[in-house]
Write a structure and sequence with these properties.
mainly alpha; 10 helices; 213 residues
C-alpha cells in the first residue's frame, strides 16, 4: 500500500470500512480508535471522518462484520481521551493566548466575548458540539483556553462522548442497512449534522438577541 492509499484510507475510512473490516480483522478497531482519538484530540485533524464513520461502523456490526459493544466501548474511550488531550493543550495555551495584544491576526476584544459566551454556555456546547464536525474538534481546546474547571469539563466530556459514539453506532446498527438509507446516505449524513446543531443554534441566537436588548 503506497502513501497515497494510506492517506486516502485515513481521510475516507467511512467509505472503505466494510472492505477494511473484512481484511484487517481485529486491527480495524485499533485503526478506528486512532482516527476518533485524533479527530477529537488534535485541533489540526478536524477533517477526519467522525459521524459517518460511527454510523457506518454500526451498520457493519448489524450484519456481523464487527462487534457493537466493542465499538461502543473502545470508541467512547477514544472520544473521551481525545477531548481530554485537547482540553489539556488549550489549558496550556490559554495563558499565552490571553497575553496577546490586538494585532492584524488577533482581536483580543472579540476573543474575550467568545470566551465569555463559552463560559456561560460551555456545558451544552461540549455535549452538542460532539455532533458537529469541526466544532467538536475545537470545543475542548476552547474549554481549556477558557480555563473551565476540569471536573466540570470531565463530566460533560464523558456524557457527550458516550452520547455521540453510542448514539451514532446504535443508529447505524438499527437503520444503516435499510435500502432507503443506503440509497440516500448523503442526505442521512447531512441530517446527522443539521439536527444536532439546532439546539446550539438556538442558544447562540438567544445570546445574540440578549446582547442587542
Amino acid at each position: 500500500m503506497d502513501i497515497t492509499s494510506i492517506i486516502d484510507l485515513f481521510l475516507h475510512l467511512d467509505k472503505h470500512l466494510a472492505v477494511v473490516a473484512s481484511t484487517w480483522g481485529v486491527w480495524i478497531y485499533a485503526l478506528m480508535f486512532a482516527i476518533i482519538f485524533m479527530e477529537t484530540g488534535l485541533v489540526a485533524m478536524p477533517f477526519l471522518p467522525g459521524d459517518s464513520l460511527l454510523f457506518v461502523a454500526g451498520a457493519i456490526a448489524a450484519v456481523g462484520g464487527m462487534s457493537l459493544p466493542t465499538l461502543m466501548i473502545l470508541l467512547s474511550v477514544a472520544a473521551i481521551a481525545g477531548d481530554a488531550l485537547n482540553y489539556s493543550v488549550g489549558r496550556w495555551a490559554g495563558p499565552k493566548v490571553f497575553s496577546w495584544e490586538n494585532s492584524r491576526w488577533f482581536n483580543k476584544d472579540a476573543f474575550n466575548k467568545t470566551n465569555a459566551f463559552y463560559k456561560e454556555h460551555g456545558p451544552i456546547t461540549i455535549v452538542v458540539g460532539r455532533f458537529m464536525p469541526f466544532i467538536r474538534t475545537f470545543t475542548p481546546f476552547v474549554a481549556g483556553v477558557a480555563e473551565m474547571p476540569y471536573p466540570k469539563f470531565a463530566v460533560y466530556n464523558v456524557l457527550g462522548g458516550l452520547l455521540w459514539v453510542c448514539g451514532l453506532t446504535a443508529l447505524g446498527f438499527l437503520v444503516g442497512n435499510h435500502p432507503w438509507v443506503k440509497a440516500h446516505f448523503s442526505l442521512v449524513a447531512l441530517a446527522m449534522i443539521v439536527i444536532p446543531s439546532l439546539p446550539a443554534l438556538w442558544v447562540f441566537m438567544k445570546h445574540v438577541l440578549k446582547a442587542r436588548s
